[in-house]
Design brief:
The protein is globular. By secondary structure, the protein is mainly β. It contains one helix and twelve strands. Strands 1, 2, 3, 4, 5, 6, 7, 8, 9, 10, 11 and 12 form a twelve-stranded antiparallel beta sheet that branches. Bound molecules: 2-acetamido-2-deoxy-beta-D-glucopyranose (3 copies). The site of one 2-acetamido-2-deoxy-beta-D-glucopyranose has 6 residues, from strand 2.
């Protein structure tokens, strides 16, 4: 897998950005999500699952860290949510940079940013950990009463894909960007503020 390869894939055309009204993104307690704050992303339709990073062995024997959904006893790996726009709070309209906060030291990468790369072996647009030169994630309202959000990744204003969970050949429940709309259910998340980051 090449971590800095161009995204050589087709995104299904979705007018998500153009058609939806911008709303403030809220955490699990209904508070506005601050630009640069740290949250656990908690899957809502997989009881006990958390979002974290895991080692993936590449065909050439090297390793990479992939973003996965996993059932564990801990809270997963918290993420830093930020937009480069001068904004105090995150809305559903802002392109986001997401990175793992305190990813355990590993020999695979020194980066913590979420990047979307075409994984030739897996044949998916995978969410991996790497050096993000581009911020293209967006939270989209899934259920505004419950503060549930899905995640979308866009390469430009009209080319976006939904982040979904798909099991790879090694049983890892990988976060991938779906190439077609509606073929898979979105990953639905709640943002739980890391308790020590107040
Ligand atoms: C996990 O999350 C719960 C609830 O948000 C919190 O009370 C607990 O301290 C967290 N545990 C760790 C290890 O961060
Ligand atoms: C990931 O791989 C590195 C080196 O191969 C190893 O040191 C580390 O313990 C692994 N981490 C996990 C979570 O498997
Ligand atoms: C991470 O940084 C250390 C120290 O600079 C370096 O020795 C190591 O090769 C780096 N690891 C990777 C995967 O780039």
């Amino acid at each position: 897998m090449k971590t800095n390869a161009l995204l050589a894939f087709f995104f299904f055309l979705v007018a998500l950005l153009a058609s939806t009204r911008a709303e403030f993104v809220r955490d699990s307690e209904g508070h506005l999500v601050a630009n640069g704050d740290i949250y656990y992303l908690v899957p809502q339709y997989s009881p006990g699952a958390v979002i974290t990073g895991t080692n993936i062995t590449n065909p050439d024997g090297s390793c990479s860290v992939a973003a996965v959904e996993m059932i564990t006893h801990n809270n997963g790996t918290a993420t830093l949510i930020e937009t480069k726009l001068l904004a105090a709070y995150i809305t559903t309209d802002y392109p986001l940079h997401i990175s793992f906060h305190l990813l355990p030291p590993n020999l695979c990468t020194n980066y913590t940013d979420w990047v979307v790369v075409w994984d030739e072996d897996y044949e998916q647009n995978a969410v991996m950990v790497g050096d993000a030169v581009y911020s293209g994630f967006y939270f989209k309202t899934y259920d505004s009463c419950r503060h549930f959000y899905s995640l979308v990744f866009c390469v430009d204003q009209y080319k976006c894909g939904q982040v979904v969970v798909k099991t790879d050949g090694h049983g890892n429940k990988r976060l991938i960007v779906a190439a077609e709309q509606g073929s898979e259910c979105p990953l639905v998340l709640k943002l739980v503020k890391q308790s020590d980051s107040h």
